[in-house]
Design brief:
The protein is an alpha/beta fold and about 100 residues long. Helices cover about 35% and strands about 30% of the residues. The protein is globular.
C-alpha cells in the first residue's frame, strides 16, 4: 500500500471514530446553573452525576437526564441540590466540544 492510500485510509478511520463518538454522546444540552437547579426541582427523585474540574480554579460539573435529554452545567460554586437527589460522584465528566 502506498503512502497516499495509507493516509487516506487513516483519515477515513479517524473521521469514522469521530462520528461514532458524536453518535455515542447523544443529545446534550448545556444550560446555566440556575436553569439546571430549576429542572431538578421538577423531578421527584432526580439522579445527578457530579465531578469537579479545573487546575487553578475549581469548577463544579453536573449532568442529569430529563425527559430523554441530557443536561449539563458547569458552575464556579456548588449547586444546592434538592432533597431526595441521588448523587453519583465521578472522577471526571467529559463533554464533547
Amino acid at each position: 500500500m502506498n503512502a497516499g492510500v495509507a493516509a487516506a485510509a487513516a483519515a477515513g478511520a479517524s473521521a469514522a471514530s469521530v462520528m461514532q463518538a458524536i453518535r455515542a454522546s447523544g443529545v446534550l444540552v448545556r444550560i446555566e446553573p440556575h436553569v439546571f437547579r430549576d429542572l431538578l426541582e421538577r423531578q421527584d427523585e432526580p439522579l445527578v452525576v457530579h465531578a469537579t474540574s479545573g487546575l487553578f480554579t475549581t469548577y463544579y460539573q453536573y449532568l442529569m437526564s430529563y425527559r430523554g435529554l441530557a443536561f449539563f452545567t458547569k458552575s464556579d460554586t456548588p449547586i444546592d441540590l434538592p432533597r431526595g437527589t441521588e448523587l453519583i460522584v465521578a472522577r471526571r465528566i467529559m463533554i464533547p466540544g
